[in-house]
Amino acid sequence: MNRLWFDVLLFLLAGCKSFTLMNFKSMTNSSYGSAQIGDPWSAVTLTSCIVNCRIRFNNCFSVVYNEIHNLCTPGGKITYNVSRGSYQVGDKFYYTDHCNATQGYKLYVYKSVVNCFHLTTNWAVYPEAKSNCSAIGGRIMQGKTRDTLDLFLSFCKNVYKTYTFLGLTDIVTEGTFVWEDGTVLDPTWKNTVFYSGEPNGGSVYPNDDCAVCGSYSGFSSVFDAGCLRVPPEEHYYICELVE
């Protein structure tokens, strides 16, 4: 049986799972990898490697395929700064989106950030945005590292092009900003997150308890703005999956 017909047969055996083949991408950056989830096996093609992996393991979201030795190693979700194990000449790493697409999530790989985000298309006041994210297993996107903050600002500038909530508020105690996961904003990180002169405690509006990105800060940082105001202060928001 030639390789083409062999791959076609595997497609039929895999059923719906075979559609994920189209979404496997090559990753040449060695900073990314995944945990091995099973023993390697011989595979005559990359296609047979991926299809067999999907048939054998429900949690197969990556493979290392060696075209020289025709060897397939199954892997789980792609992560950052993880060892791919012992490297052999000819090894190539492939991964696919492991996020819950039915809830609108999509995998984003940006520097050290490897996470599922749902870029919502509706405006909401902060409590509503928080509730909506929670309902799909997420929370409003945070910016606790340089890379996650940069990714958030990129979404704000290039996708929404207008005000967007960051998952950071001082609703409970004025002046003490807390991330959505309950951790307090590190004072040494405050000047990086906030625009110059911000947060200003709402000099015009005393209840500016939310952090927002927008044209006011040149999309380079955030500033404090209202979470719930009359008329309602509605902004875009991004949900990040909590795993």
TrEMBL record:
It holds the Pfam family Lectin_C. The keyword Lipoprotein does not apply. SMART domains: CLECT. Residues 116-227 form the C-type lectin domain. This is C-type lectin domain-containing protein. Keywords: Signal. CDD domains: CLECT. The lineage of its organism: Eukaryota, Metazoa, Spiralia, Lophotrochozoa, Mollusca. Residues 1-18 form the signal peptide. It comes from Biomphalaria glabrata. Gene3D superfamilies: Mannose-Binding Protein A, subunit A. SUPFAM superfamilies: C-type lectin-like (SSF56436).
